[in-house]
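Before relying on records like the one below, remember that each one covers exactly one chain. Contacts with other chains, cofactors or solvent are not represented anywhere in the record.
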Amino acid sequence: MLGSSRIKTEIPGPRSRALMERRRGAVSAGVLSGTPIFVEEAHGALLTDVDGNTFIDFAGGIGVMNVGHTSPRVIERVKAQAEALTHTCFAVNAYEPYVELAEKLNALVPGDGEKRSMFVNSGAEAVENAVKTARHYTGRDAVLVFENAFHGRTLLTASMTSKIDPYKKGFGPFAPEIYRVPAPYAYRCPAYQDCSGGCRGTCLDFVDRAFIGLVDPKNLAAIVVEPISGEGGFIPFPDFYLRRLRELCDEHGIVLIVDEVQSGFGRTGKMFAIEHSPGVIPDIVTTAKSMAGGLPLGGVTGKAEIMDAVHPGGLGTTFGGNPLAVSAALGVLETFEEENLLGKAEKLGERVTAAMEEIRGRHETVGDVRGLGAMNAMELVSDRESRKPDKARTAKVVENALKEGLMLMTAGQYGNVIRTLMPLVISDEELEEGLAILDRAMTASEETAEGPRQEKRGVGTT
């Protein structure tokens, strides 16, 4: 058992508590720390805190560490680049790694046509620049987005994001010409519950109705969609829904922007989640998070005629595509090739889904298990009949898991979804121990709320 020997103090330990006191006196209270520990080092899928406790990482820095912490190829590339050049600003003096990464990304993003890329510092910047580009190309103003979406925290991307607390609360007024429609969410769709044959896409009507009552499609520059929502709770968009969006964009001359910030770079078993929907070719794809193995980098990749429509100087940033970051991203791509991380992601997702279904079979408070590839989640409810979200129990599960050495994260509009974003390089032993801790954390949360209970026998129990 990994956990039995790796937790050496109470959580948080004394050094983490002392650092937390210093943090309160130095760091804005508006900056959240989801756990009360301070990490000292990390390798692969393991984090070690300042008190010597080691945790299995199922959070991956919010989906940033797909190739693992301190990935050898990434470190090698960054060290070599740091000795040669750390910054010039690509807009002032260009350098080859930026161009090399753009070439590789253009080849990886779905679509046979010619493409162009540009680099920024974050996912929010990537989305913002994608929207700017779509507006410039079309000469239109409006943007259509979906419920449960998260696109960033800048003024424009916060306007596009579909959650008030904490992302929008007190930060208005927001950007104009942003229109939002309901998104597919099978577990919470009343129509779906009445469809024995599965989802029939009732929510697609909201897009057609939006073109009548919300926004003129001839003034719509872009539709922006996550193929599987991230912060919204790991809710996949059905293939037919994405195909219909592509058709609507073609019909009305709208740019289809696919936000792959969290779902991209192998998380779903393909390099990009949109590849699970054959025939749906985006006009623009936004990337970030796991692209550079922990260094700040975001990308905008799109059809050449769209990306080249912007005048020289219209797109840019001082630090975007920094030599260290783009070199790290080249190391990430090398790691994917050498270690077959796409294949590992697919197998990892199968195991995590099976384990979550086993947990669901033993725990009535798990209402739904869903995901795509290794982007997996389970939604916690007070009871399966009412499906009432149980945010408090979800927080307790995360707390219980941390005490045993497992790092978890939540998601969802109600904060009642546990999502897994472990590095794809996680070992089988680490994975199984983490899943076992998750199961025990679920049991402990139920006993805390209800007292000791009779264990329900399910798949995988003895």
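Residues 452-462 have pLDDT under 50 and may be disordered.
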